[in-house]
Amino acid sequence: MNCDNSARDKIITDWYFREWIGDNSHLPEAEDVVIFMKILIDIMATNGKLNEHERYYIIGRAAILGVPQEKLDELHTYQADTSENNPNFNLPHVKKTRMGLIHNLFRVLSIDHKIHPKDIKTIYTLGKKLGATEEQIQQIQSLYEDEEKLREKRASLLFPHGFNDALKEYQKLH
User: Fold this and answer.
1) What is the domain extent for residue 34?
2) Which SUPFAM superfamilies match (predicted)?
């Protein structure tokens, strides 16, 4: 973890990795996360698919991963490389994380918790540019769909009257 991160950032990042992949013993440096997120922005922009809501989501993911504010600001103003044959897509670190990048594409393009057929087609096109096979992309899509079903099930089971209703009860206490 980068020494620029606060103790709070470290707690958040530790928790996130423990929840996400079950392991918080090897955490990325903030600069590693920034590089990953810039590649994600480049991938989205290559297909003309990056709007401010999507960029905000990417920045939010970076924040959860412990990126300090000045680096978040850098992501906010980052000018994507929109070239069709971006050489960064073939770099070793991109090849080793392409499955994570594709998973993030599903997350980014479903900000409203709905993914549209044209977005799925976009993800398959972009995933293939990264060197993933159709079968690998299908597996990630299945994972994404399972995660969405679980999220919906969790929300309805834990908060049958809605989270906002539960939150209002707590707010009555102060």
Assistant:
1) 7-171
2) TerB-like
